[in-house]
Amino acid sequence: MGLLFVTAAAIFSVLVSILLKWMPRRGIDVAQAVTWNYLCAAALCLLLLDPPLDALRAPAAPWPALLLLAVVLPSLFLVLAASVRRAGIVRTDAAQRLSLLLSLIAAFTFLGERAGAQKLAGLALGLIAVAAIVARPDPRAARGDGALVPLLTVWVGFALVDVALKLIARAGIPFAASLLAAFAFAFIGMLAVQLVRHARGRTRLRWKNLAAGLALGALNFGNIVCYVRAHQALPESPAVVFASMNIGVVVLGTLAGVLLFGEKTGRWNRLGIALAIVAIALIAFAPRG
Q1: Could you count the other beta carbons within 10 Å of the beta carbon of residue 128?
Q2: For residues 216 and 146, what is the distance between their CA atoms, to the nearest angstrom?
Q3: Which one of 62, 252, 263, 269 is CB 3.0 to 4.6 Å from 171, fit for a cystine?
Q4: Is residue 141 assigned to a domain?
Q5: Residues 6+ apart with CB under 8 A from 284
Q6: Residue 264 resides in a domain
């Protein structure tokens, strides 16, 4: 059952990328869709996870980290959409999953985790993989593909989210409660932005954007819940869940990008994806310090 949850989580994650790539082609306003995505995710979190809201009223509740998360999450979603559009699903999903490298560096530096030889080897290999993945598929092109900045922002941004979640967990806030708070405040902030855009005539609130956003929120929430359920189903095998999820997203993202959208990858990109899979496995199965 645990591996079924992992598979479902990986599929949901790649479907999010597919939907983000599809939306601009259908005239969907991505910013509006991301806004409604958080309404859907917050509602599903409240209904299905039954978060203990009393934990958010505790004096030790890490509100700075929660509010930071509420700002970073929607901003990162918009950058993710730009990266999928410019760099493609293949490179974006690989960069997203390799954000674990920066999370690992933060854990070594600030959170007291020990840096074993195998993890350091995975870290070094992963950094090489990042450099290969962000390379242009056709180095002979006269101009860049505009993908470097969004790819690196995705890489750094997801690591920032991971570190923020670790800090929130250390404060003793249950995962469901912190998730609801972040989703709710992200929705409020994004809704305010969309109302300003609407009032200034820059865009119109449309039903098709709401529908796309609700679908995006359901996929986003499904990814999170299935990943958590996988860890609960395999409590003695966190490395298996972690590696299967991240490698699964890289592989499925590559297949989706190439087969569904005909994305082009250069030799360096393909080498980077292969190195990413090896790096993730090295880090996931490294001995615990």
Answers
A1: 14
A2: 25
A3: 62
A4: yes
A5: 239, 240, 242, 243, 246
A6: yes
d(CA 213, CA 207): 10
Let me know if 259 is exposed, middle or buried by CB neighbors in 10 A (0-12, 13-18, 19+).
exposed
* Structural domain contains residue 289: no
157 in Cβ contact with 73 (< 8 Å) = no
Torsion of Cα atoms, 54 then 60 then 63 then 69, to 10°:
-90
Instruction: Give average pLDDT by consecutive 10-residue segment, the chain, 289 residues.
Output: 89 97 95 97 94 88 91 95 95 94 83 80 94 82 72 93 85 90 96 94 92 97 92 84 92 95 92 95 81
Count of domains in the chain? 1
Please indicate, yes or no, if residue 152 is contained in any of the structural domains.
yes
The parent domain of residue 48 ranges over: 2-284
